[in-house]
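ARCHIVE CARD
Drawer: 12
Card no.: 0347
Subject: one protein chain, sequence and derived structure
Cross-reference: see card 0346
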Amino acid sequence: MHKFRVGADRPSMDPMERRRQRSVIKRKAINFTKIVSLVGIRHATDSKNSVVRRVVWILWLMFGTGFALHQIIERLQEYNAYILRTDLQFITDQDQLQFPQVTLCNDNPVPKVSKTVDDVLTKIDENYKSMKDSEKKEPRSRKEHEDKLKAHLQDLRYLTSQWEEQSKNFSMSAQDAFVEAMFDHKAVEAHEVMTDLGYCYAFSTNEKPYLSSKGGASNGLYFVLRLGHTKFDKYPGYKMLIHDPHVEPRFKGSTAVIDLKFQTLTRVAISYEHILYRGLPYYDCNDTDEYYRTSNCLAACDEEVNKFKCNCSDVYMKDDSRYPVCSYGELLSCTQYFPPDVVNSPKLEGCKCDRECNTSTYKTSATQTPSLVLAKEVLSGYVFYPSITYTKAENVPAYLFLDLLGDIGGALSLLLGATILTVYEVCEFIVLVVKDYVLFQFLK
């Protein structure tokens, strides 16, 4: 048995063997040029043709190969850029359309209070104004902030324990707040929900959605509300937010809030737009959860900031065993009187929210007219679809893989008379030649 070693110990190849090897490779290459499906290469390699003719064909092949490679590289770059285009569809053949959630909040979060609570709230209001006035006159350090705040809150312990239950008792129940509520000519009941404005009322929630089968004001939501305002109300009324049922209602900072005033009839026409984004690699968004919403994630981050600043949790926030429930006085005071550097905490780092791939947007057009028919302590409104249609916007790839193959094939065919199979022929020939060379080197 012969053993071969790769390296310096292997005997050098005989010159005759080298010439024979080159001759075999040359013969295979010439035969390949005669059968390959590439226009022009046969003429450029045919020794029977004149030198001028062969040079012309070689120049044409060089130009075609270079230009085809340029076109192919451009198309590959365009494909790898993952460009999207927006495909808009106006859907008109719907039998039903899901109604958005309608959340209504009283401008006064505590319209129903007893004499004792009324006195305490008055005292809170006075202490709040006193702290604000003194702060303008005499700036204090953070410790002095906290000491002053604690001194004021000592008199407000009445509202500290069981604030959630007390705040619920201060608000009117849905049964007391609504004179009437109807959807599609049928009586409906509002759900009581906790928001950043206190206890509010919601229709068409995620748990109990409404479906519209006809357009028009009479086929939507109609309601009549009692104001129930007190001396703490400067401008009695309600705030209304129309939003995706999968989005938690947040009134503060929202630009979509509609103000409802007493003795006023409000008509709100809504239009629905469904937007779909492609996930990675086209667009960096969360495509694993159909009901994921970026606004819910941002609201959770905002809650963490407020909990850390106030060292307590507001009643509308999710239950958190790390923090006690805030008192009414703490809610009024903590965010105004803690210095801004309080929020610069390592605990809050890493709060990152992905973009959503599935978005439902509701645009509103509101008109308000005074109504002398309504009593002084009530207001009413209509919320409706003008028609059962909606807009669907979907981001789709602008350059597909089949488009890439078509452009590559077009460049090869136009400039070289070649196809994708020609590329395979060339690659196969190179592989076979390399294999023969390696076998010849190491097995001879």
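Annotation on reverse: The chain is about 40% helix and 20% strand. Confidence is low (pLDDT under 50) at residues 1-8, 153-163, 335-349.
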